[in-house]
Fold this protein.
Amino acid sequence: MDITVESIVFLIFGVLTLGSALLVVTTRNLFHGALYLMASLFGVAGLFVLLAAPFLAGVQVVVYIGAIAILIIFAIMLTPQVTAMRSVRTAQWPVAVAVAVIFFALLVSVVTPLMDELGVDDFAADFTQENPPDVPADSLVRLGEQLVDPQQFMLPFEVASVLLMAALIGAVLLVWPEGTRSTPPGEAGDD
Amino acid sequence: MTELLQDIGLSHGLAVFIAKAVGVMVVGAFGLLWTLLGIWIERKAAGRFQDRLGPNRVGPFGLIQSIADTVKILLKEDLMPQGADRWVFNLAPIVSVVSVMLIWAVVPFSGSWIGSDLNIGVLYLVAVGAFGTVAVLMAGWSSNNKYALLSAFRSVAQLVSYEVPMVLALLVPVLLSGSMSTQTIVEQQHIMYLLAVPLTVLIFLTSGQAETGRGPFDLLEAESEIVSGFHIEYSGMKFGMFYVAEFLHAFTIGVLTAILFMGGWRGPFAEDVPLLGFIYLMIKSMVAYMVLIWVRMTLPRLRIDQLLDFNWKFLVPLSLVNLLVVAFVWKILPDTDQINSFGDALVPTLVLLVVNIALIAGVGAILRERGRRERQRVEARLTAAESAAAGD
Amino acid sequence: MVPLWMYLMVAAGLFSIGLYGVLARRNAIAILMSIELMLNAVNINLVAFWRYQAPLALNGQAFAAFVFVVAAAEAAVGLALIITIYRRRQSVIAEDVDLLKW
């Protein structure tokens, strides 16, 4: 692989994604962790752009940075860090490291061309390809049509909207102040 | 530009890169320089709305007041509160300015002048807007100040809620033009969408005003309650950056209104002379922006519960109904997917306008009824209190 | 272009980091953040395979879009649960909520 603009950009976003992700799981300050999470998810959005999926990159930023990360920060603010004195890691963290490393090694052994060189090449898929065919120019339009096409993804699409609605109602019910189930929090005790 | 650079012997990739970099600098510098003049215009207009003169000391008509202010701000001491989160504290104003400047990348200044004609332009606008909320949160958290933190809480409630009607309003021009690219949306406006969907414009301006955190939605800063909120601890140029970001964001809402609803750079001879298109765009943006200043200077600040009630109980349902009605009308009208001239656009525009006026009248009737009932309730309570007082 | 396996490596790394976070962090919110990282790793894989193996069909992108929906729902309900637990037990440490443990 020769060095092109694309490979440099890939490197930047890859390092941003993985580096920030490492900081997310190691940092002591949860607020910083949430900011690193944003950086990591932004890196993923950059990778989506490189993969010719700008729509998903936009949705990634809107949904993850604009909604989920902000929600997480809000939750961090609502639950004071009374536990700052205690360790941020559980007692089983060495096991966690081992599991993560072994799992990573397993995944890498499957996807890298290394296995081919060792002679273990009974994988059907070819992960070394570099030049896939171009994405059709109207892919965004077709994605939109597929999502509401009864032959394709219409049912999952509608189920997804029901799922979101259920999550919305469930979240509101869960955090409802206790003892005021019948009246909204603002009106309880008024008048 | 790219050809010129390639002629002097640069490779294609490098030439494109340099041309893009120069473009970014020109757009960025224009935005920031425009702020100097724009703040003067805003302060002058605000002065007139409040029956005073506005800046009038430095230079003719106070024209270089903004430059004097900049110099003053640059000379101020750069303070950092004790216990502040140093990195986040310094990063917040930068994120704030960048989030606004990024919007300008997809602004079509004329038929050929556009930073990047993304085919997901409108989605990009929404995505970039998310960083503004993050900046407020970062500033509010890192300042280690109660008022700043309160402001951060308010910002989540306000900015995230008002994003919903804003996105629903943005969907209408996308629906009418059949594209998310800002350039295509401008090109499709043979008759400006303002005349077809005035209700959507109102929703967009209202939620835009809330997104920028300006009066009557200025709860993020609310001088009289939380003493300017999230940027309370900022001084010197860092405060200046928040100030610039706020101004530029508000003006950008004007620009977006001009692009999405008022035909952007379109106007007589604009297709042949790009500069003329740019001037048209600026004039239209200024008109939309003046409306925003007018609202800001006229209405008193809302309470936080009123603000959220207004959004979730009125604006969101209204924009949903509006979107559904527009989509339905657009679907049953014939040939709406191939509008290529003024003539093609005339009938759909008129139909949509009639529907919109009916919708506005309906909403107005509901609001009047609600207002009447509320008045009766208050009056009944007042008379009850009076009779109780008389009985004692 | 960058070969496919490099994207898969990034995704594998992201997933493993998330896995470590889920297993090793005490704070429930941190665990939730780690889960988000893992979901994103899956999304990178979905989009990368779509781009390199089947760019003409759009199923990969559509699947990624559904993962977004699930992630949003999961974050909303998860955070609501964490806040409710905090109200009842004054704690956001996952180990403190061990009624189901034996």
Residues 1-83 of chain A form a domain with the Four Helix Bundle (Hemerythrin (Met), subunit A) fold (CATH 1.20.120.1200). Residues 34 and 73 of chain A are 6 Å apart (CA to CA). Chain A has seven helices and no strands. Chain A touches chain C through 92 residues (CB under 8 Å).
